[in-house]
């Protein structure tokens, strides 16, 4: 007869084997969960919508790509405040579709472009999960903490569902930021410069990463600094070249709409308090995901302190290249303030915070010594992810509130995009900042060409 302790030992051995299998194949498990979630969402959502209508911002970016493929110029023929790479990437996709398809750009071409943009964004979201997992593994050498960090974004359904609306540049900016931190920690300076420069070319707040890259490379020597700057110069040249080929008006429009407009419009915006930002953020992330991100923010800030406290014999007098946890803590702090205080109005404005706070959750788990408590922490994250999916994701998709937008500004963009309609003005979207800017500059929403205001007068208006 088998003794009780032998049965317990066999069960413990089996559990350990299952645990080792899960940790060893963590990337495969993340992929299977992610793909299963989206297959279910697609199957349940498409019969409701009838066709992939997309969301306002993604359709605007894809329309910019359509313009590039057909000889028109975003910022000149299409007013937009986002950086150039958000139009260049769909433009590359649209050019390939236009080359292989019909002479014009019809509904089928628009459908293929939108589908390619959705798949690209969903793929980049999965890459972000891998990079989050890999970064925690690099810092802590703790596979359980790394796996848990990879699951954290799944507690925020908007993070992985937003891509179904179309091209999402902030997801790609997150991937670029994670890659820059990864390559900086491994002292691959050129690649770090390339990745860091992509982030602000996709989203203005991504400027944090090239600033960090330049600062860290400067501390590491002249050769490192030269390579980081070379990577930034390459991305800048590639991004601006298609617009520069169209002459000074295109570059002027980029300077006016992307760089100067936020400074002109922000002072006259209706003030929004921190409480309003946070409540809106919770409505997007769900209360479960918001609480997990707060825990991750605390974990990211505590980890460098805890590591230095334990390694009391190691002198830490300056920020050196191996101190990746310090960079993560700073980035989490910056983007938590950005999302909750500065600019959390948009649906995907918390993307950077979600990504790097997830790393913080992994760092927090790595600090725990009690094995059972660590396991319960991970199980809790998985349970929260399931609850968030069932409550937020399912409800959102049956209401389709994140994809179909009824406002008139979206309908104008959608009409031009899906039906390739010609329009005699560059002001197609006519969103809030766009209307405010045109009013302040004395322009008209019926202008045929955008971005040709006097730069000197704009700069002088910013000086008190």
From TrEMBL:
Domain of life of the native organism: Archaea
Transmembrane ranges, per UniProt, are 27-48, 111-132, 144-169, 189-216, 228-261, 281-303, 324-341, 353-369, 376-400
* Keyword annotations from UniProtKB, A to Z: Glycosyltransferase, Membrane, Transferase, Transmembrane, Transmembrane helix
Say if the entry is tagged with keyword Ribonucleoprotein.
no
UniProt-listed Pfam families: Mannosyl_trans4
Q: Please give one Gene Ontology molecular function term for this protein.
A: dolichyl-phosphate-mannose-protein mannosyltransferase activity
Name this polypeptide is given: DolP-mannose mannosyltransferase
């Amino acid at each position: 007869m088998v003794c009780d302790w032998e049965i317990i030992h066999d069960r413990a051995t089996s559990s350990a084997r299952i645990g080792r299998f899960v940790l060893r194949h963590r990337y495969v498990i993340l992929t299977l969960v992610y793909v299963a979630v989206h297959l279910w969402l697609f199957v349940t959502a498409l019969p409701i919508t009838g066709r992939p209508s997309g969301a306002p911002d993604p359709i605007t970016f894809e329309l910019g790509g359509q313009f590039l493929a057909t000889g028109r110029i975003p910022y000149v023929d299409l007013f937009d405040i986002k950086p150039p790479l958000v139009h260049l990437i769909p433009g590359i996709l649209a050019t390939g579709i236009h080359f292989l398809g019909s002479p014009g750009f019809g509904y089928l071409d628009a459908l293929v472009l939108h589908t390619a943009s959705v798949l690209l964004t969903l793929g980049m979201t999965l890459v972000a999960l891998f990079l989050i997992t890999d970064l925690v593994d690099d810092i802590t050498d703790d596979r359980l903490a790394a796996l848990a960090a990879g699951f954290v974004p799944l507690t925020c359904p908007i993070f992985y569902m937003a891509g179904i609306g179309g091209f999402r540049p902030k997801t790609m900016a997150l991937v670029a930021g994670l890659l820059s931190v990864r390559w900086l920690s491994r002292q691959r300076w050129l690649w770090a410069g390339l990745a860091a420069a992509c982030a602000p070319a996709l989203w203005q707040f991504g400027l944090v990463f090239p600033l960090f890259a330049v600062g860290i490379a400067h501390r590491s020597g002249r050769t490192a600094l030269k390579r980081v700057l070379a990577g930034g110069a390459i991305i800048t040249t590639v991004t601006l070249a298609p617009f520069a080929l169209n002459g000074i008006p295109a570059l002027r429009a980029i300077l006016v709409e992307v760089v100067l407009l936020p400074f002109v419009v922000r002072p006259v915006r209706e003030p929004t308090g921190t409480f309003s930002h946070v409540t809106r953020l919770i409505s997007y992330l769900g209360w479960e995901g918001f609480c997990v991100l707060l825990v991750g923010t605390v974990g990211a800030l505590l980890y460098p302190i805890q590591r230095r406290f334990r390694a009391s014999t190691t002198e830490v007098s300056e920020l050196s290249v191996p101190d990746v946890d310090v960079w993560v803590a700073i980035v989490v702090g910056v983007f938590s303030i950005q999302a909750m205080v500065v600019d959390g109005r948009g649906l995907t404005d918390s993307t950077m915070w979600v990504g790097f706070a997830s790393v913080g959750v992994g760092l927090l788990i790595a600090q725990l010594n009690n094995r059972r408590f660590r396991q319960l922490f991970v199980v809790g994250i998985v349970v929260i992810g399931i609850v968030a999916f069932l409550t937020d994701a399912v409800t959102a998709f049956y209401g389709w509130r994140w994809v179909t937008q009824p406002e008139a500004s979206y309908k104008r963009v959608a009409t031009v995009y899906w039906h390739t309609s010609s329009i005699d003005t560059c002001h197609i979207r006519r969103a809030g900042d766009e209307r405010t800017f045109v009013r302040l500059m004395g322009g008209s929403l019926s202008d045929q060409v955008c971005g040709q205001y006097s730069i000197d007068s704009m700069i002088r208006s910013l000086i008190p």
